Amino acid sequence: MSAAYFRKYLGPAPCWALCVFASISLLAACKKAPSTEQASTPSGAVVPAVRPAESSPAPAQVAPATGGVTPARGDGPIEFTDVTALAGIHFKHNTGAFGKKYLPETMGSGVCFIDYDNDGWQDILLINSMDWPGHKSGSSYPALYHNNKDGTFTDVTRQAGLAIEMYGLGCAVGDFDNDGYDDIYITTVGSNHLFRNLHNGRFADVTAKAGVADPGFSASAVWFDYDNDGKLDLFVAHYIEWSIDTDQYCTLDNKNKSYCTPQAYKGQSSTLFHNKGDGTFENVTKKAGLYDPTGKALGVALLDYDNDGWLDLFVSNDTEPNKLYHNNRNGTFTDVGLAAGLAYGEAGTARAGMGTDAADYDNSGWQSLVLGNFTNESMSLYHNDGSGLFTDEAPSTGIATMSNKSLTFGTFFFDYDLDGLLDILAVNGHVSDDISVVQPNVKYAQPPHLFHNLGKNRFEEVTTKVGSALPRPIVGRGAAYADVDNDGDLDLVITTNNGPARLLRNYNGNKNDMLRVKTIGTRSNRDGIGAKITVKTAGGTHLSAMVKTGSSYLSQSELPLTFGLGKPETGKTVSVEIAWPSGWKESIPNVKANQFITVQEGKGMITARPLPFPR
User: Fold this and answer.
1) Which of 33, 40, 305, 577 has a beta carbon 3.0–4.6 Å from 534's, enabling a disulfide?
2) Helix or strand or coil: residue 5?
3) CA–CA separation, 591 and 578 (whole Å)
4) pLDDT tens per residue across span 155-175
5) Model confidence pLDDT, tens digit, residues 403-422
6) From the CB of residue 246, how many other CB atoms can be counted at a distance below 10 Å?
7) For the whole model, what pTM was predicted?
8) What does the DSSP assignment read for 348-414?
9) Residue 158 in contact with residue 207, Cβ under 8 Å?
């Protein structure tokens, strides 16, 4: 067990104590009341009746954050440390590859954070694929790891009822039935799966009853309430028309078979399911104007790019134009990607869009986009100017040059140092294991990028400055963040194609102040997906974020929001404003920093828990 791990949980210790601890480890191994107001309802909004108090589940009782340990507040350089083995995570992704080089073997798999038992600690869901028919060498299942609250996790996949073989790719987490417990949707090559949370640590496969199997080649997915009726709907991105029988022969060296690119296949339309509120869903893809058989979608990000209170969709396509679907507030969407400047790259051609995310990275109040692309295409950083137009700032910020040789899959905004400016993680890895045969300077395994936001449209790559774990070359695919140890800073899980998942714990990111916020909807959906939260500091800074699902690539980060508040300051307070999807708005003044607070629609702040590090 590392000295950094020891310091994290037990604080500074003399050298002899570290030695004793190492020896033991070696042996063990052989308020203010909120003000509320009813905002005017957006035009055309469907505002459901308030659910009766007696039928609404009580707020989840959160276990004491210490969990038997006391994470120490950071005082040194920030370091992401690989604690996968120490945490008890032993997951390996299985592509099923046996030499035929079927295209799905290049896709990798995702990771989702979910607090499935409502104990206040983020658990980890890792998606797996499986062996191909006729070439079975063993069994492969997704893995659900329960957070033990002491820095370790326990594999509870079988107990949870999730030990089901499938050629899994992605996942999305959300409370589709508004019962207070988050459910799981898993995308696959084949038929997808919806697992309903039974509140007792187990899940039931309700795919058939719900009508959301959605067969095909699915990729990323998001839960969102597109019609603001208080129930979570489901968007599933689809990639290409592929089967073992239609697999194409491609080669890089004119001698051996290589993995084909998506140009060899027809596209497949993504799917929109409307939640009917009775445990079933209706396929409304065509009715909503989203049917597009030319699409080859891999990533999807939720955003409200025009701040009209209705959720829009950005869909990244691989070798086809990207889509920005504007919500028309009447159950339909219109693609405005071309007019918004998002459909094509600067050269006027479609790029190979992979993972994506949306956030207000410049504290302007408008959500911008980050997008991973293919090698020699560079990443995209689309800045939202508030007029409906986006400009790719990757070249001017230096991100384009720094990412040009990478093939980026999972990518997202997060504030790893809690300075109040959102940084960018990009997880990279090529799709062709033989790429170096024809491009010697391009590697199959590639290091991730961590871009530190310096403000004023400037980013610095700091990948090699945050420890030795992050810069290690991997065949990266999915990625997500969460505060797995409840110490206030954000940790990472990264998946690799046909390889292990990695848990990277953030040490010393919490040396700055922060505020963490969980939302509970009443008139809005129970998770508060789509709720916009603005944190205002005494210095006049406005930090805004939206509760969301999906983003990255095949993955989902935790639902609670983390706001970095900068350098520690005694007695620091902020005001918190929430705009709920239902149209309700709330303002909570004088909220102390360094807390995890829960806000409930119509009641304001209902719990406030200090983060457990020494002051």
Assistant:
1) 577
2) helix
3) 13
4) 999 999 999 999 999 999 999
5) 999 999 999 999 999 999 99
6) 11
7) 0.89
8) SS--B---EEEE-TTSSSS-EEEE---TTT--EEEEE-SSS-EEE-HHHHTHHHHHTT--EEEEEEE
9) no
